[in-house]
Amino acid sequence: MLDGIIREFKREDFWNNIQNIAEKFGISSRYLQKLFVQHTGLSPKLYIQINRFQNSLKLLTQRNLPLTAIAYECGYFDQAHFIKAFKSFTGTTPSGFQAENSPIILSPAAI
Predict the structure, then answer these.
(1) Average model confidence (pLDDT) for the chain?
(2) Is there a contact between 35 and 47 (Cβ–Cβ < 8 Å)?
């Protein structure tokens, strides 16, 4: 069951909330959160944030897209939210990010 939940969270078109995913698998959202933390060490919310960041990093380094397009494609509300989240992970803005000079790498699962 957890594999299915993780696959659901990893989908690039993931726009659902935890309650909807829990209902899809026939469990409560609280139980989903508890199960997820037990098996991953992360809350579902943090896992989704990391996955969204990884997707944005992939788009930023592999394609020449405007930041607004990356923000929307990765499910951020707008470019400002994307920049704030990106900065919280990297310490820099997306436009100032230089992949070749950064210790941040994409996980093999994100490539």
Answers:
(1) 83
(2) no
Read off the pTM. 0.75
Distance of alpha carbon 79 from alpha carbon 75, whole angstroms = 10
Token pair of 52, please?
């969204």
Q: What is the CA radius of gyration of the chain?
A: 15
Residue 83 confidence (pLDDT): 95
106 and 59 in contact (C-beta within 8 Å)? Answer: no
Burial 9-19 (b: 16+ CB within 10 A, else e): beeeebeeebe
Any idea what DSSP says for residue 101? G
Q: What angle (nearest 5°) sits at the alpha carbon of residue 12, between those of residues 39 and 31?
A: 30
